[in-house]
Amino acid sequence: MHIEDGILPLAACAAYFVVTAAFVIPGIYEIKRKVKTNLSYKPFLAMVGVAVFVISAMHLPVPVTGSSSHPCGTPLAAIIIGPFATVVISVIVLFFQAVFLGHGGITTIGANTLSMGIAGGLLGYAVWKGLRAGKAPLWLAAGMAGLVGDLVTYMVSAFELALSLHGNVPLFKQWLIFFMGYGPTQFPLAIAEAVFTAAVLQAMVNRRPDLLPGILAKEGA
Q: Maximum Cα–Cα distance for the chain, whole Å?
């Protein structure tokens, strides 16, 4: 997912920054609103940001894409701090990873946020909400959120690459090539992220439900 500088045209990078900004603005409002009603939300937000940084920094290079494969952590973050707040911390995480770890680029923060923070986080959250609305067990809903959010992240990342780099190759075919380039590493990682997301959320609900105000009351355990 960490697309490097120089892979995407600058015009595409600029477009992805605009799309990301459209989600960051409501994310800032979401954070401000929750801080007013929950004094522990701000330090909890910082802790989740560190967790996403660590989880998504464990990367495996994928030569065919000029990118890397790794867990995301954003589906879990979206469940526990909110989907739009997750977009905000994704931007911050990706900036520090690019500057200090050399994972991804500065010009591609918008593209990488779109895949990991927006697509992965929001769609993972949507899966969580849909399954919980259907009375699925908490662990199952969380696990499927992690699985879907992880795979969607790489579907979108592959599409970003294909859209800019497909040349004379049909777009769908090039997208499939890029996505399957991630496959050998990402499919096992997606399963691992599903297990991790389910285990962490279930443990938090069992041991520290005070950190998750609203989940038990609104969703039911």
A: 55
